[in-house]
Amino acid sequence: MIIGVTGVIVEDQSAALDFYTNVLGFQVKYDMPMGNPEGDRWLTVVSPERPDGVELLLEPNRNPISSAFQKGLKEQGFPAIIFHVDDIQAEYERLSALGVEFTVEPADIGPATMAILNDTCGNLIQIMQMKAG
């Protein structure tokens, strides 16, 4: 058994697509209409480093329960998802230069260094570089 798809709730799929591809650097895997009146899409992105790896579903925020969960996580400062990076300082500098808002700058947390950013779609995202060993 493998993890095929995991999701993150987003307030606007088009805005999320722009942020996750043009800013974070993911690639579109699937972008298909769901056939509902709201125009939702089955919209997944993947890492260009692992195009056949885990897909991230940019899931529309239509359900009141998921909306409350998303809002609560952000208000408490908790990330909705964590992405691993090879060089957190370089990634922090690259994203900062693109205007990305960080709520937590790179910080040593023992076995890793982490930072938290705002994805502009209702979520906080943690990036993390694991230490060797």
Task: Give a brief description.
The protein has helices spanning 13-23, 64-76, 88-97, and strands at residues 5-10, 27-33, 41-46, 55-60, 81-84, 102-108, 112-118, 124-130. With 133 residues, the protein is of the alpha/beta class.
**Helix coverage percent:** 25-40%
Strand content: 35-45%
Distance between the termini: 27 Å
Number of strands: 8
Which helices and strands, and how do they pair?
Elements lengths: L4 E6 L2 H11 L3 E7 L7 E6 L8 E6 L3 H13 L4 E4 L3 H10 L4 E7 L3 E7 L5 E7 L3
Parallel strand pairs: 1-4, 5-8
Antiparallel strand pairs: 2-3, 3-4, 6-7, 7-8
Description:
This protein has a single domain, classed as 2,3-Dihydroxybiphenyl 1,2-Dioxygenase, domain 1 (Roll). It is 26% helix and 38% strand. The chain has helices at residues 13-23, 64-76, 88-97; strands at residues 5-10, 27-33, 41-46, 55-60, 81-84, 102-108, 112-118, 124-130. The chain is globular and about 45 Å long. The chain is built from three helices and eight strands, in the order βαβββαβαβββ. With 133 residues, it is α/β, with parallel strands linked by helices.
Give structural attributes.
133 residues; alpha/beta; 2,3-Dihydroxybiphenyl 1,2-Dioxygenase, domain 1; four-stranded mixed sheet; 3 helices
